[in-house]
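Quarterly update from the structural biology core.
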Amino acid sequence: MPLISSHFGMAALLLWSLTGTSMARAADVMSVNQCVDQMVGYLAPDRLSSVTWLSHEQTNLEIFPLLKAIPANHGEIEEVMNLQPAMIIGGQFGAPGLKSLVKKFGYDWHELSLPQDLDALYRNWEQLGAWLGQESRAHDMVTRLQTGLGDIQKNLAPLNIQAMVVNANGWVAGNDNFQDAYLRALGLSNIAAERGIQGWGQVSLEQLIYWQPDLIIVPDSLFGGQARATQWMDHPALKKVHSRYPMVKVDAGWLSCGTPALLRAAKEIQRHILQHENNPSASVFIHHVVNKESDHVT
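Predicted structure, tokenized:
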């Protein structure tokens, strides 16, 4: 069965998940992790009886309308006892108190690890597919992600771009980090890893200027206010970073979970690079990637 590939496809999937079909199973899976919400939403939306409250917050994700229509939970044991789910799925570091309680009361707890590279992400899809009896859909998803990232890598690797993802408060990803693996999957070199950062590290404005990355990628949220954690990225001193490409802000929600939205972010980064490839003298400015149409991959 093909994965979601259009607004029509998502609308049909939403209608199917809400009305049910003769082949659909009862909604018996409770998710207590935001990424699990999305992943189960792609593999077995009809099985979801409850998603985290975070998935009811407005996002640009294509799957948002589907998750918004499913009752939300706050990871409380009282909600578990009320729903009586056949399966509860969480993440490695989330809801530790709930994890011990559901096991004490005899509920079926499943847990996905936090992936630090693409192979771990693919294993999570396969594991989730096995739990849900959706191995074929999970395999198709892994193939879609691998193919999409591989195609982009072929286009960008020959450009020898030194890039870095700069998160709030200057946190950057070094070696042994999913963002590092993602950059490499796109065919980009991670300058933070090359400078010796392991896992997560912080960079100052001065370091950023000194390192002179070819491309700075900034995960951006829908938060409309001002925050000191992100204001420094608008500092005039950044104009001294004579990058090959303008800084690009990409929706943080697209980068948070390894779903088709991850490919949407990758395609936008590729488009941004290729758009400015013939203008190497471009000064640094912020290019906002804002696309609320779809995160599907064609």
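The first helix runs from residue 7 to 19.
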